[in-house]
Amino acid sequence: MKILIAGATGLVGGEAARILSSRGDAIRALIRSTSNAEKIAALKGAGIEVVEGDLRDRASLDAACDGVDAVISTVSAMPFSWQEGNTIGDVDRTGTIGLIDAATAAGAKRFVYTSFPHPPEPGFALGDAKAAAENHLRSSSIEHVILAANFFMEVWLSPAFGFDYPNGSATIYGDGTNRMSWVSHKDVARTAAEAVSNPKAKNAVLPVGGPSIHTPLEVVRIFERTSGKTWSVTHVSVETLQEHKSAAADEVQEAVAALQLGYAVASGWDMNPTDYLVSSNLRSVEQYAQEVMK
To answer: Given this model, what pLDDT does residue 265 score?
Structure first.
C-alpha cells in the first residue's frame, strides 16, 4: 500500500510511519517547511518519501494525496505548533476537513484519524474541532477509522504535566480515585498502522487504551514501588480546573485546562483489551515506570 501520514514528525505519526515502512508499505510523510530537520532526516533515512505541504493549503494536500491508498492523520496545532494563523480552528478543524476532502477527491480508500473519547458536544475549542472533523469524516464517501485514544502515559505521566518521576513528586488532577486507561503512544501508532487495511476497522470508532485500568493514585503507588521511594502528591481540585478553563487567555490554555478537567472527572472509561484492534503486547504503566526510572 501507499500511505500518506500527516503528522509524521510527531509521536504517533512518526511511530506509525516506521511501523508501516518496516513492513514494506510505501510511506509518504507530509511535513511543513518549519518541521524539525532531525526528524525529517530520520524519516528519509528510513526510506520514507517526504513531501512539503500545509493543512491550510488545499493545493498542497491534493498533491500529497495523489496516488495514495490510505491516509493517516495525527496532526494537531496542540500543543507545540499553535500560533496566530495556525490555530486549532485552522489546523484541527478546517485543515483536517480539507485533508479529508483531498483524500476523498484523490480516490484514497481509507482515512484513519486519531482523536480521543469525548461527549458529542465537548465544549472547548480542541474538542469541538475534533468532533467537527469526525462528523465530516463520517459523512464523506471515504472509508473512515476514528481512533478514540485515551490518556498517553508518555505525556500525562511526565514532568511536563506535573508527574515529576525524576524527583518523586506528582500533581494529581482531582482526587485521584477515578479509574482510567493509560495508553502508550506506541500502541496508538500500532493501531493506526493496523487500521489502514484491517476489514474490522472499516467505518469504525475504535477504542485505544492500555492493558489495565488504574487510578492516578494507583499509578503513583506503582512508581513508588519501582523507585523504592515515597512520593509527594499535590492535588488540583475540579473547581480550580474549572476556573482555569473559564479564565483561559487563549485556546491552548483552554485546551490544557479542559483536558486536565477531563482527567479529573473521567469515569466509565473502563477499556476492555478484547475490544481493541491491537490487543497483544500492550505497554503497561508498570513497564513504562521501569523504563523511565532506570
So the answer is: 86
